Amino acid sequence: MKKVSVLIKHHAGPTGDVLICRKNGGPWEFPVTKVRTNEVSPEAAERASWEQVGIYVTGAKLEMIGHNRPMDGKVEHIAEGNITHDNHTKSAWHAYYTAVNKWQTEPVAGTYDEFRWVHPTELAQYEFAGDDVNFLAKYDPWVNGREIKDVRMF
């Protein structure tokens, strides 16, 4: 199974706020969807943005990919271009894309009932769960504008 999360930036540039969402007062998350058999991951990121929060995005760019290791269930996130592990056919993947809010519109309730535009440096102040926790721990350099090192998460 492949999943895609999308970090929707309110506007282009390194200072653009990122949209976080939550359902029924649960943990915060980025809009997420499963990749359909007839689409590629960037298309899934665009679809998730429209279907779940009502925002058209442009320029979905792969930032990090997670590989769910079948032997222990842990997820490791690796900077795009630095994938060196074995591609096991029964593995689950979770990719994270960044995209820009095309018309700078506001989110619409649907899948989620609460939204916030958050500056990337403030993401650590919010409670996330699941793969998003691992992603943010690995992606901290992005949050702070530093270069991403190729360090595996275990």
Specify Rg, calculated over alpha carbons.
15 Å
Query: Tell me about the biggest sheet?
Result: 5 strands, mixed
Helix content: 10-25%
List segments where confidence is low: pLDDT < 50 over at least 5 consecutive residues.
80-90, 146-154
Give the CATH class.
Alpha Beta
Span from first to last CA? Answer: 21 Å
CATH architectural name: Alpha-Beta Complex
How many strands in all? Answer: 7
SS-based structural class? Answer: alpha+beta
Strand arrangement within the widest β-sheet reads 3-1-6-4-5
CATH-defined fold name: Nucleoside Triphosphate Pyrophosphohydrolase
Tally of separate domains: 1
Q: Name the overall outline.
A: globular
Order of helices and strands: EEEHEEEEHH
Number of helical elements? 3
Structure overview:
The chain is an alpha+beta fold and 154 residues long. It has a single domain, classed as Nucleoside Triphosphate Pyrophosphohydrolase (Alpha-Beta Complex), CATH 3.90.79. It has helices at residues 41-53, 131-138, 140-143, and strands at residues 2-9, 18-22, 32-34, 57-68, 75-79, 92-101, 114-118. A five-stranded mixed β-sheet has the order 3-1-6-4-5, with helices on both faces. A two-stranded antiparallel sheet has the order 2-7. Residues 80-90 and 146-154 have low confidence and may be disordered.
Summarize the structure.
The protein has helices at 41-53, 131-138, 140-143; strands spanning 2-9, 18-22, 32-34, 57-68, 75-79, 92-101, 114-118. It has 154 residues and is of the alpha+beta class.
